[in-house]
Amino acid sequence: MADEAKREELLKRLADGVWKFEEEEVVAAANEVLAANLDAYDAIINGLAKGMEEAGRLWEEEEYFVPELLLCADALYAGLDILRPHVKIEDKAKSKGVVVIGTVQGDVHDIGKNLVKMMFEVAGFEVHDLGKDVELEKFVEEQLKTNAALVCLSAMMTTSMLGMERVIKMIRERNPNVRIMIGGAPVTQEIVSKFGADATADNASNALKEALRMVSSLRTMQ
Amino acid sequence: MRQKALNLLQGKRDSEFLCFSGMGNVTTEGMKATGIRFAQAHTDAGKMAKLAATSFRLFGFQSAVVPFDVAIEAELLGCPINFYTEVDPQEILYPTVKEKTISSAAGIRIPSDLANAGRVPMVRQALSLLKSDVGGEIPIGTYIMGPFTVAGQTMELDHLLKLCLKKPEEVSEILGIYSSLIVELAKSYFAAGADYITIREMGACSDVLRPTLFRSLVEPHLKDIFRKSAGPLVLHICGKSNGIIDSMNGCGASALSVDQKNDLRQTRESIGKAPVVLGNFDPYNVLVRGTPQDVRRAVAHCIEDGVDAVWPGCDIWPTAPRENMEALMAAVAAGRRERK
């Protein structure tokens, strides 16, 4: 009972530290999780990720914008760096698989991608980040090499998004089962259908929403 | 046509609607007509000017604008640029900043002879060539990235955005330096023949920055730019802009340019009928992907909602088909009747 009260307190401190971007508070709480021998995976999912959910809600309500989300991400990563090495082997086996992510050639905007990547990492995916301005063939090569179940293509500019169609075709030709997610400001559902991708996110907000939904459903499945 | 556009930028309206832009508007049709490959046009004044004139020559588009990419300022400041000269000519890839080389105000080096630095002389020459070629008929425009956008192009963007909250005074110092650069570039371009210049501050849109942060951090520097520059300057901010339209209007630009994410009726409610507002035609979803009927409908919508001239909300994506470009110009010309 005392342990459960301690757990709840620390989970709340982790969550609050994340959405209030109080990095030092997150570090302190994460270290106390370890000192109290609490479950690291539980602290990540129900503490750090829950804090990011709150940040996502504030984003949707237009209280938080990109700078705030980035500082929340820093706070989350500060906690993740401490807790992740202590995730038990059986929890690591819960990994949802491999994701390849990158920003397409002609585009050097990667903040949205980095936020989405972070949420996949929190959710337990193994993420291979190709970076920004990625040649389209590289997505195909990396998907084949890692046998990734999901490929995320990001393009924030209209001028760079049309290359996505070609890369989606190339990936599909080699592996019809891979799921492909597109994110970025100019992408709309209609374009997703045209390109043959599986999911869309109209902007970083929706990409984050989808990633958050994934995290939420993961938490529900525990 | 040229004088009507310049009159409009001075706030003088008449019954005729115009369709022009402050941003790139070249098409693959223009590339075919001239034999100029897109990747070649960014570093050659003659090709740039020739290509820029094609939207007027082929479709009657009512301006010619150079350059076509958004990397001039970052290149001036020392960032390597990828021009994608090796890619398939069928690919349309705009030059991008390959590496961000600035991490603080102390690291910024402004070239001493700005008019002859980087690709500035090329842009100036292209402006001069356009002036001689089509400048008697249509206005010649150019654009410069706004200070916050230049900051985001030259610094790691996540670092810049975090600094906005952690050390806003440091960001303000950087924006001040870049604003001076912009004022000097504007002088140089006006001297070379530009009739109007668009300050493109898309990095500071409300999809990224909280409106209060825009007001406290970016607006003062934009005001500074517009106050110190002679000649017509347009302020363009794309994305969600209704939350900052009051601030945009207060910056002192000759006109405001917005894109399809701006609710123009709401904009008019916020700032009234007097400010010159250009927009908010969707250059991709309508002009590239729509039908001529979609184009006509969208133009009518822009005019009904209160634009003073139909401007694409961003660069025209070059694969805009001929029939849609033709529909665009015809629809705007027909807009005169609706105005009455």
From TrEMBL, chain A:
Segment forming the signal sequence: none
Originating species: Abyssobacteria bacterium (strain SURF_5)
Record-linked PANTHER family: METHIONINE SYNTHASE (PTHR45833:SF1)
Domain B12-binding N-terminal: 1-95
GO molecular function: cobalamin binding; metal ion binding; methionine synthase activity
Gene3D superfamilies xref list: Cobalamin-binding domain, Methionine synthase domain
Entry keyword set: Cobalt, Metal-binding
InterPro entries: Cbl-bd_cap, Cobalamin-bd, Cobalamin-bd_sf, Met_Synthase/Corrinoid, Meth_synthase_dom
Record-linked CDD domains: corrinoid_protein_B12-BD
Name recorded for this polypeptide: Cobalamin-binding protein
One GO term of the biological process aspect: homocysteine metabolic process
Automatic annotation (TrEMBL), chain B:
Residue ranges of domain Uroporphyrinogen decarboxylase (URO-D) in the record: 7-333
Keywords per UniProt: Methyltransferase, Transferase
GO biological process, one term: porphyrin-containing compound biosynthetic process
Matches recorded under SUPFAM superfamilies: UROD/MetE-like
Highest taxon of the lineage: Bacteria
GO molecular function, one term: methyltransferase activity
NCBIfam families with a match to the protein in the record: PRK06252.1 (NF004889)
PANTHER family: METHYLCOBAMIDE:COM METHYLTRANSFERASE MTBA
Protein's UniProt name: Methyltransferase
Species for this entry: Abyssobacteria bacterium (strain SURF_5)
Lineage of the species this protein comes from: Bacteria, Pseudomonadati, Candidatus Hydrogenedentota, Candidatus Abyssobacteria
